[in-house]
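Exercise 3.2. Students should predict the tertiary structure of the chain below and write it as structure tokens, then compare their answer with the key that follows.

Predict this chain's 3D structure.
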Amino acid sequence: MYRLNKKTVAAVVAITLAALVVFGYSVKYSRDKNEERIASVSTTKMPESTTVNRSGAELLSESEDKKFQLYYIEKTELAYIVYEGKEFDCNWGWSVKLHKPDTSYFDVDGDGEKDFLVRILAEYSTDDASNAAKYEVYNLYMYKGTEKDGEPDLEIFFANKQTWREPFSEAVKCEVTQLKSSKKFIQVAMNNADRSISYDDSGLTDNKYTYYAAAFRDEKNNYFTLANWHFNQGIYKFDEENEKLRLTMSIIVEYRENEFKEYLGDVTCEIGIVNGRLAIVPMTIIFEPLSKKVVVDPRNMAEKDWSITIKNSAADPKASSADINWIENQFDVSTLGDQTEMDFSKLTSKIKYIDTVEISQSGIVLTAFPNYTYSDRVLQNGVFSVVIDDGNSTRQIDYTCVEGTKNGRSTLTITFDKTYNKDELKDMRIKFGA
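Answer key:
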């Protein structure tokens, strides 16, 4: 039998991939330029083996077709792979004590032959972002079965915890900004490294590959100001259901307020083998915000200006307290006419003290009956919200809330985070105070 000793493995690792670079966001992406940065991978030359004591070996994993087996000997911390009955030593047996290797078996390079994938623990890490948790960082090995001089052989593809970083940043332009028109929106724009990304006066871009997430909002409904951002560790993942190899890179943003850091979401892409090299699969790179950070695309504005006025048909209730500290009601805006009357007297909140509710593509103005005013305490504490339900999910669309006066009456103006078509506000719930 033959085996791959540790010195040979080290040599193989030294000449393997410096890549993960093929990127294809634009119609014509810079494939040639990127491929120049990819180191080649060759089949290892197998030395004749010497007798090795394999007693105590534990089977950790086996491919369903029995071609590959992964074994581990705890006493010597030796991990080795058996392919078609031939043994190959691995140089990462030390990691098995920390974490049992994750394995998978599917065709990565599209040649019709399944590849044996092994993911080993490189380290445990915790980002200093406020909402980050401890996570695992991995090195990735792909073992591809071949034949050499009539004997089973292996090609080894290797990517360590940092392999993705430099080639990705060289090939991909990724910019994370905050809109000037609405601090609620963090904008993640990506394209080829040699493509510029332009912005209008409000901070919006027309770049095709752009995604959005919500900025941090404190307990008083104030949005923090973006200062810096960076990619955290890249994590290699097996998507066994779709037989895909994926890379996930978390984005960490830092705000000016208290140098506060937050985990925003993940840039993900598929990894494949292109011309014998590990590479990012074109047109697969996307940004996925954390579920609680999901927002709409602010570039999708209302198609035209519109407004409706809801008149309270009930008389002033003549309440003993002039303080309006609780408004809560639901409107199906899409069904209302431009001028509508409703009786607010039977509603439980202090919306009965409101004379008119004006709703437009950009926000809501609530005008009180004479001598009533909106609670300063509620305004100072930022207890307000406007939530819509599109039938699939609920989403908070408010941005700011301020008190004013109009014709001597107290008004409350809640602006939306962007402009909306009337039919998008089918189930709109307004809340002010508790």
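Discussion points: The two ends are 76 Å apart (CA to CA). Helices lie at 6-15, 31-35, 165-171, 376-381.
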